[in-house]
Amino acid sequence: MEEQQETLGSQCELPLKSIAKHDEWDNWQWQMRKRIVSAASLQNYLHLDSRRIAEMTLVEERFRTAITPYYLSLANPDDPNDPILRQALPETRELQMADYGKADPLSEEDDMPVPGLTHRYEDRALLVVTNACAMFCRHCTRKRIWHASDANVGETSISKMINYIRRTPSIRDVILSGGDPFTLPTWRLEHILKRLRAIPHVEIIRIGTRTPVTVPMRIDKELCEVLDRYGPIWVNTQFNHPNEITEEAAAAVDRLIRHGVCVNNQSVLLRGINDDPEIIKSLCRKLVRAKVRPYYLFQCDQVEGVEHFRTRVSKGIEIMESLRGHTTGFSIPTFVVDGPEGTGKIPVMPNYLISQSEQMSVLRNYEGVIVGYRESGERIETQNHRTSGGVSAILSGQMSAITPYESRRMIRRRLRATGTGL
Ligand SMILES: *Cc1c(COP(=O)(O)O)cnc(C)c1O
Ligand code: SF4
């Protein structure tokens, strides 16, 4: 952190919009062409000293850089811990800690019947249809596919993947991933969607894309019309921080929704970026305001070059504790650990089940109230012997709940009872 503090100056600005003429800024191809693809060229926008540039250039030999002018314009260049910069700028720790992680931490390649298609779960398949992305996120799980050239999943490979789906009737949900499928030219994407739609057992098509975050102008009229034609389509996007939900991003989501696309969000829990209950709560609230359903919060995978972003699993549990009961139920994602050895997504959450007997389950709620829940058809006979209290008193029917006296809800109840407030 300290290293960055000295290198990012305090008086620099981001004159990014001024590099665009007329309506160029709103043209996604212009944004792609003008991507910042080296630390050296970042100097034009950020105040970086030569040591930092040398360090970043070294990292780029292994893990490339690409940042759209739009995404960079969201950053506060004065803040070395800015969540936008942290997700976009290479840093030395990617190399220092690279050995901790794996190239393919989810063993996706072990579940590939044909190259590029992971068939892990019976009824769904995940297809890497391109290696290109608008931005290379420093925390990406598929850093291994960031090759030198951007368009290297050929038509033959894609046809092989589609043929596999055609001859595998158990697959009813197809996930287009990458890389970022929305970096493909619209006509190529349409060609893929058209062939998938022609397969009777393919019920839904999902597309994983970060373009609403990194280049929202990509969600243009032409693309929306194609998506509308081949629905039902679900788009999963990846907003990780409230600062990413801009007017432009919300408008891009709105265009998708108006073309019949359902939009869900998959965030990654990232140390120093969003590993904080208040940040995630604010992110989730902003997402539902933008009509995006928070779907997953991912534990950061054990990827090479990503170790410095990983939190403990306990951080995710702590965040889930702060959400359930404290905010709109449908704005709460499921926290999942994508397990090693291809074990897949494993949901993890705080414990709400405290104890059980045949007649009774003892649960606790978000306030810490511990309450007995009678099982069906059971009558709870209060036992005569005195228990020593606590949870066992609930199990034996001597108490119905243990309630923290000072919970806000109980205070509201007391005030209502005494007529002193609502
Ligand atoms: C995440 C993933 C899916 C989809 O899982 P859902 O829980 O249905 O969202 C499918 N295949 C692979 C290989 C995945 O990693
Ligand atoms: S957009 Fe997705 S695939 Fe591309 S670099 Fe970011 S996380 Fe990785």
Question: What assembly state would you assign to the polypeptide chains in this entry?
Answer: single chain
End-to-end C-alpha gap: 48 Å
Q: Tell me the helix content.
A: 25-40%
Read across the widest sheet, the strand sequence of neighbours is: 1-2-3-4-5-6-7-8-9
Q: What is the number of domains?
A: 3
Task: State the fourth-level CATH superfamily of the largest domain.
Answer: Aldolase class I
Overview of the structural elements:
The protein folds into three domains: 4-96, no CATH class; 100-347, Aldolase class I (TIM Barrel); 353-418, no CATH class. The protein has 16 helices and 13 strands. The protein has helices at residues 2-7, 28-33, 39-42, 50-62, 69-73, 83-88, 93-96, 155-166, 186-197, 211-214, 221-229, 247-258, 277-289, 313-323, 391-395, 408-417; strands at residues 117-118, 124-128, 173-177, 204-208, 233-237, 262-268, 293-298, 334-339, 344-347, 353-356, 360-364, 370-374, 401-402. It has a nine-stranded mixed beta sheet. The radius of gyration is 25 Å and the shape is globular. The protein starts with a helix and ends in a 5-residue tail after the last helix. The relative contact order is 0.09. Bound molecules: pyridoxal-5'-phosphate (PLP) and iron/sulfur cluster (SF4). Pyridoxal-5'-phosphate binds next to strand 2.
